[in-house]
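pasting for ref
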Amino acid sequence: MVKRDDGSTLYLSRDVANIRKREREGFDQNLYIVANEQDLHFQQLFAIAERFGIEIHSEHISYGMLHLQDGSISSSKGNIITFREVMDESVEKASEIEGRDIDNDEAVGLGALKYANLSVSRPKDISFSWEQVLSFEGDSGPYLQYSNVRAKSILREASKSGSFDDGEFNDKEYELLKKLAEFPEKVEAAAEQREPAKIANYLSTLSEEFNSFYHECEVLGSEGEVKRLKLVELFVEVSDQGLELLGIESLNEM
């Protein structure tokens, strides 16, 4: 069926016309970023396009839905909660975190929200909890930002004197170095699979590795200071780039 009895067209009919238009305009790729509720719709669309000889590469970037664990967000407009409402509440809650002197509430609140969304594999639904989203204890946007800030504070305090010691790395140094070296392949895999969670989860593991290194390996004033400072510099470089890819702002203080 192309048209209803009243003359109106179906979504599928309009999408077929749209995909033909995009083919004529010479698109290299035709990507639809739509929730997994529409998986069947796009399977049908692409099958019809193939039957019509439409050759443009089309792909449905499917993702799951977000579910609130505690129902703590109420909408002023009824049952539908807008992204603006969630975003505003995230920033407000970031400003209320106890024991943390946060200069940029918006960057922390939005970073927390973005990480919560991007760290879950696309097809899966997201179970959303403010306690977890705004935690500084791991696997959260604030944890990544705080780890990055901690590393930058070490570099600010460093004298940066001495020569690099290229002797053997201890276990903690080596584990951090190995994890840092994985960054390019994680980015490549994320791009190929349309899966930002690969970068988000990598940054979480990398931050855990860095914090373990930080607690067990004295940096400033140690015999291996120059070598360890280089590892800290590399961590800052990688985490800065990774956060940028996720659209999360890296901070200088937190």
